[in-house]
Structures are given as structure tokens and as C-alpha cells.
Design a protein that fits this description.
- The protein has 366 residues and is of the alpha+beta class.
- The protein has 3 domains: 143 residues, Histidine kinase N-terminal domain (Globin-like, Orthogonal Bundle); 60 residues; 147 residues, 2-Layer Sandwich (Heat Shock Protein 90), CATH 3.30.565.10.
- The protein contains 11 helices and 7 strands.
- It has a 5-stranded mixed β-sheet, with helices on one face.
- α6 runs antiparallel to α7.
- The radius of gyration is 38 Å and the shape is elongated.
- The model has no long low-confidence stretch (mean pLDDT 90).
- It binds adenosine-5'-triphosphate (ATP) and magnesium ion.
- The site of magnesium ion has 4 residues, from α10.
């Protein structure tokens, strides 16, 4: 009965309490609910009175808390302001009751119930608010990721079609410079031009292999790995001499691979070029060891060099596109290797110690 009296007293003083609340609430100038926030205060005030009468349940408080949390999230408010307003509302309710003719014995259980009501409200409102904020953030993050990916895809397509178109005039210029050299063997600078054109062609091919365009028209074939390495080592001969590296190549002459020969050629060239780069900066013996063998129904190829090791923390990222530690590197060499090897159903790994850096490739029999 005492609770009913207290509740009634609260109802009678609602107008002044809500007015006081309206004056003291913290609300942003741009809050779209500015001007009607005190109505939430009013709803809360009535709820407290009804809670004292045991007319409403925990669930009713939760519903109001959810509604308010939604509004506060829409208004993008500072959660601190919100908690301040709720606590200030609680204080006002208690002040109203203090003015009444109630003995402390009646007030105490009411205060406990009022605190309970506000606590339930706050817990639900703040946790709902946090959930909403997090899901907004998640949505924004997804949106950014998606549009970033879309842009990257478009950029990639533009770049690869651009590079593709690049290739035809390049092939023709290379052909004419060869003719020029045949017709005028003493013409100066043609060697330099040819060399630069080969570099350019190498980069273009590399790029097309990443964009996978290059692989479309070719057929798979079974080829000898030993012969492929013979061809590669003579192609890289000028660079090997330049670095002064010792190459030891031990490949089972019967070792065959079923795949795209041009792509595998690019893989081995990339790895040997990296090894040569590493050895270029080294003093003393410069060794590259290439092995090809069969092991447990697998074809294994390893290429190692005794240059400075790859720092342990960089090992996990060397196959990432655009990771490079070289001033003029593009960082796609190993990325291309990994893509190609995986397209062939193989795996590529790298181990590096003070003694040597080893790139190993394994292909399971299909
Ligand atoms: N044999 C190696 N010894 C030491 N570091 C290596 C070796 N191979 C690769 N790396 C490291 O891995 C990085 C990535 O190699 P990757 O071939 O992908 O790119 P890059 O050689 O820098 O540029 P490019 O696109 O011209 O090949 C290199 O910059 C280098 O730091
Ligand atoms: Mg490289």
C-alpha cells in the first residue's frame, strides 16, 4: 500500500519533475530528437511509478530501453551524455519523493526498487546501443572492403588489358630491331635497345601471368625439367657471369613435368634472378644449387643460394604481391611463382638460414 502512495505522489509531481529534467538534460544542438527527448524522461518517470506499483515487468523496461537506444544511436550521440541524463533523471525522482510526507521506513524499499528500475533500464539501453554501434561499424567496414575490392578488380582489368595491348607493338619493335641488327651488324646501341626491350617484355609477360590472361590459349605439355633448366641457364648466362656465381645443377634427366612450360620457365627464372640479386651483394663464394629429383611419388625441385638470409619476420610475406626490399623491385616475382605453382597443383616453400636460402617446389603425381 505504501508503494502505491509513493507512486501516486510521483504521478502528482510529474509535470514539475519532467520540466526540471527538460531544463537539465545534455542534448546536442544537432540531435534530431532535440525538443522531444524530455518525453523519454517522462515515459521513464511514469515507468518508475508503475514499477513501484508492480504494474510493469522487467520486459517492459527493456522495451523502453531498446526504443531509446535506437533513437540515441540514430542521433549519433555521446553515450556519456546519455548515461548522465539517466542518472540525473534518477536523482530527480528521488528528490521528488524526499519532498513527500513519507517515513524513512517506507522510502527505503522504494529507493531500492527505483534504483533497480533505473539499473535495468541502463544496462539494456547501453548494451543495445553498443550492439547497434558495432553493427553499424561492421556494415561500414564491409562496405569499404567491398568497394575497395571492386576498385582493385577494375584497376587490375584495366591494367591487364593495357599491358596486353602493349605486347603487340613491343613484339613488332623487337622483331625490327633484330632485323636492323642483321642488316647493319655494326650499328651502335642496337644491343642496348634489344636488351631493354627484353627487360620490358619480361615485365609484361610477368604481369600477364598474374592477370592469368597469358594462360588462356596454351595447352599443357609433358616436358623435361633438365632441358628447361639448360635453356634457362643459358638465357641467364650474362647475369650469372656478371654476379660471378657458381651454379651446380643436378637434375635427373628423366624428370618430367606435366604443365605449362612457359609458366614454369618464368617461375625458375624469377627464383634464380632473386638468388643472383642476393649473391650480388655478397662477398666470397657465391653459389646457387639446383636439384631436381623424385621423392615419395612427388617431383621435387629446389633452388638454393648462400646469400644473406631472409629475416625470419619477412619469410611469411615474401610471396605477397608487391612485397619487395629492393629499390627497383616490383615485388611480384614470388607472387607470380606461387600463383603458377599452385595452378599446377604444387606447393612452394622457402627456408632461410645463415648458410643458405632454399626455395622448394613439390608436385604430386596426378
Ligand atoms: N633468394 C633470396 N634471398 C634473399 N631474399 C630474397 C630471395 N628471394 C626473395 N627475397 C626477398 O623477397 C622479396 C620479394 O621477392 P620478389 O621476387 O617477389 O620481388 P622482387 O625481387 O623484390 O621484385 P621483382 O618483382 O622484380 O621480382 C625480395 O625483395 C627479397 O627481399
Ligand atoms: Mg624477384
Amino acid at each position: 500500500m505504501a508503494m502505491d502512495d509513493l507512486a501516486l505522489f510521483l504521478n502528482e509531481h510529474e509535470e514539475e519533475a519532467v520540466e526540471e529534467f527538460r531544463k537539465r538534460i545534455m542534448v546536442g544542438e544537432h540531435d534530431q530528437f532535440n525538443g522531444i527527448i524530455h518525453l523519454n524522461g517522462q515515459a521513464m518517470y511514469r515507468m518508475v511509478a508503475d514499477y513501484l506499483r508492480s504494474k510493469i515487468t522487467h520486459e517492459d523496461i527493456k522495451q523502453l530501453a531498446y526504443k531509446v537506444a535506437h533513437e540515441r544511436n540514430q542521433a549519433q550521440i555521446n553515450i556519456g551524455d546519455f548515461v548522465f541524463n539517466v542518472c540525473m533523471g534518477r536523482e530527480l525522482v528521488l528528490k521528488v519523493l524526499q519532498k513527500g510526507p513519507f517515513p524513512a521506513a517506507a522510502l527505503l524499499p522504494a529507493i531500492i526498487k527505483i534504483n533497480e528500475c533505473f539499473d535495468i533500464f541502463l544496462v539494456h539501453a547501453v548494451s543495445r546501443y553498443t550492439e547497434l554501434k558495432e553493427s553499424d561499424l561492421e556494415e561500414k567496414k564491409l562496405f569499404i572492403e567491398r568497394s575497395h575490392k571492386d576498385r582493385l578488380t577494375i584497376l587490375g582489368q584495366m591494367a591487364s588489358s593495357f599491358v596486353h595491348e602493349f605486347r603487340n607493338p613491343l613484339t613488332s619493335i623487337m622483331g625490327f630491331s633484330r632485323l636492323l641488327k642483321e642488316d647493319y651488324p655494326n650499328l651502335p646501341y642496337v644491343d642496348i635497345i634489344e636488351n631493354e626491350l627484353h627487360q620490358l617484355n619480361y615485365r609484361v609477360s610477368q604481369f600477364l601471368l598474374v592477370s592469368k590472361k597469358g594462360a588462356v590459349h596454351k595447352n599443357k605439355e609433358v616436358f623435361s625439367i633438365a632441358l628447361l633448366f639448360e635453356e634457362i641457364l643459358s638465357f641467364l648466362y650474362p647475369n650469372i657471369v656478371d654476379v660471378n656465381a657458381q651454379i651446380t645443377c643436378t637434375i635427373d634427366p628423366m624428370l618430367l613435368l606435366d604443365g605449362y612450360r612457359d609458366e614454369m620457365r618464368q617461375v625458375f627464372i624469377n627464383i634464380i634472378s632473386n638468388a643472383l640479386d642476393a649473391l650480388q651483394r655478397k662477398n666470397g663464394d657465391k653459389e646457387i644449387t639446383i636439384n631436381g629429383y623424385r621423392n615419395d611419388e612427388m617431383t621435387a625441385i629446389t633452388i638454393s643460394n648462400n646469400g644473406a638470409p631472409i629475416p625470419r619476420d619477412l619469410l611469411p610475406v615474401i610471396f605477397e604481391p608487391f612485397f619487395t626490399t629492393k629499390e627497383l623491385g616490383t615485388g611480384i616475382g614470388l607472387y607470380v611463382c606461387k600463383e603458377i605453382i599452385e595452378r599446377h597443383g604444387g606447393v612452394i616453400t622457402c627456408e632461410s638460414s645463415d648458410q643458405q636460402t632454399v626455395f622448394s617446389m613439390y608436385f604430386k603425381d596426378s
